[in-house]
Amino acid sequence: MAKPTLLALAAGMGSRYGGLKQIDTLGPGGETIIDYSIYDAIRAGFGKVVMVIRKSIEEDFKQVFFKKYSGKIDIEYVLQEIDYVPAGLSYHPERVKPWGTAHAVLMAAETIKEPFCVINGDDFYGADAFMQMATYLNRQKPEDTNFCMVGYLLAHTLSDYGYVARGICTADENGFLQNVTECTQIKRIGSVICYKDAQEVNHPLSDEQIVSMNFWGFTPAYFKELTIAVEKFIRERGYDLKSELYIPSVVSELINSKKVSVKMLNSAAEWFGVTYKEDRSYVVERLKSLTDKGIYPSPLWK
């Protein structure tokens, strides 16, 4: 059986960060956050890495990543561009914003033939999360519709410098995901975490709320349903300049229609990442601390 693949979403523009955070050197040896994810994935038994990037940063990624992984793990990349839409569909000609994470995953449909894990390229997920994910995916066949995710406590995923987007998760008594709702404006106001709805009304959330940080486990069976969802979205929303289709929206629809099951995996790992430029110093400090404790070597790649 083929080893699982790691699919890293790294095509974001970094508008709130002020640059390409995917290739920013944050570790004590000049490592990027993706470096740590790939390092943890190798230790967990993943066999290949596929990165989703944009044409405009293709050469930067080749220079930063591909030589360093030579001999360590197979690595490929696919491109995500606005005009990469299913045949026969049209969209607003002035659109510049990518179509979202669901569309990004679809770009790898012809490249990935084995169970795979999806991550954000600018998030640190922790070694245990990759171990739990690999264990689950190694039990799945390509045609299976038993998916999974690793969730994190909301209170540990905020930024002190502005709003963040998170998928709010609910699960049944057996630990299977029932619903995940994408909330794009979450922050702590005083002592209470709130999300702002479309009417600009704030709603409180628990610090213990489990959220999705785009750490998903799928099989290739997901691509068939994803193609249908993306086609429907662009047909209905293609002339919105800023509309995006997120992975949680597609997953929730598949759960509601009883086409898939999604197990919420338990992990002791802690998340951190960079949303705003001001988050950078905290991430640098955390990576240095993990290195000082001997959890990661420095430099990471020798």
Structural class: alpha/beta
Task: Give the termini distance in whole angstroms.
Answer: 29 Å
Average of the residue pLDDT scores: 91
- The percent range for strand residues is 25-35%
CATH C-level name: Alpha Beta
How many strands, what sense, and barrel or not for the largest sheet?
A: 11 strands, mixed
Number of domains: 1
Number of strands: 13
Give the proportion of residues in helices: 25-40%
Overall body shape: globular
Fourth-tier CATH superfamily name: Spore Coat Polysaccharide Biosynthesis Protein SpsA, Chain A
Q: So, CATH architecture? A: Alpha-Beta Complex
Number of helices: 7
Please tell me how large the radius of gyration is: 18 Å
- Could you please say which CATH topology applies here? Spore Coat Polysaccharide Biosynthesis Protein SpsA, Chain A
What sequence of helices (H) and strands (E) makes up the elements?
Answer: EHEHEHEEHEEEEEEHHEEH
